[in-house]
Amino acid sequence: MSPTLVRHQLPHSGSTRCDDPPAPARSRARTRDWAEIQERMLVPLYEAAYDRLGIGPGTRLLGLGCGSGLALLLAAARGAQVSGVDADESRLELARERLTPDGMPEHTRVVSGGLEAAAPGDAAFNVVTAFHPVGCVSTVEGLTASLTAAAELAERGSAVVLGGWGPVERCATAGVLRVAERLSDPPGDRVVGSRGWRPSGRDDLEDLAERAGLRPDGSGRVACPFGYADLASAVRGLLSTGLFDAALEAAEQRQVEKELAEALHPYQRADGTVWMPNVFRYLIARTR
C-alpha cells in the first residue's frame, strides 16, 4: 500500500470579514504558518503514541486530520505505510509535497476524494490516528462520524489514537486560548463548522471513543510546550490552528491579534522568546 492522501469532506469555514485578505491568500499564509511554526509543537505527542504502539514496518496507518503531514512523515520514517485524510486542501497540498517529493518511486500515489478513497487495497489498516486535539467544539460530531467510518477500514482490534489537551491547570496555552472563547459569538450563534475552543473535560477522549464504538485500552500524558522565536511568531502560529476562526468571524483581525499578543506577554522571556508549558493527553482505543 503506497502513501495516500485524500481530501476528507468535513465542514470547515474561516473568517470572511471584508478587512481580511482574500480567502485563498489567507488560507495559504495560515497553512505555511501551521507547517513552519505550529505543527512541530505536537511532535512529542506523535512520538509518544508511536513508541507505545511500536509503529514500524508492518504498520498500515490511516491519519485522520493529517494536516500538512508531519505525523505521517514521522510514521513513514519508522517504516510504516501511511495514508492521510484532511478537510483543508491547502494543508493537504503541503502534505503531498512532503510525502511525494521529486525522485520518489512512481507507485507513490496521492489522490483527492472522500474517506472511501483511502480504503486500503491488499490489507486493512491496523492503526488509525486522530491527533487533532479534542476541544474544538464543532469538530466532535464530525470526528465521531470519521472515526466510525475509519474503523470499518481497519482490522478488528486495531489501535485508534485520540489526542487532546491535558488538564487546564497544566496547560499554559489554555489561558491564551480564552481570548478566542471570549471574542467568539455565543456557541449557539457560531457558524457550523468553525473551529472554536473550549476547556478540555477529564473524560473527553473516553466519551469520544464510546460514541464512535471503540474500546478504550490505555492512555498517557505528554509534555508539549509551545515555544516561539518571538511574539509575532507566537501570534501567527496560534492563529494558524483554526481555534481563532470563530473569533475572526466575530471581530476584526487586528483586534484578535492585539488581544492575543497581550495574552501572550506573561509568557515572553527576556530574550523575546515565548514559552508556554503544556500537557497533552492521548487515548489508545481498539476497534471492535
UniProtKB/TrEMBL annotation:
One of its GO terms (molecular function) is methyltransferase activity. SUPFAM superfamilies: S-adenosyl-L-methionine-dependent methyltransferases. Residues 1-30 are annotated as: Disordered. Transmembrane segments: none annotated. It comes from the Bacteria. Residues 62-138 form the Methyltransferase domain. This is Methyltransferase domain-containing protein. It comes from Streptomyces tubercidicus.
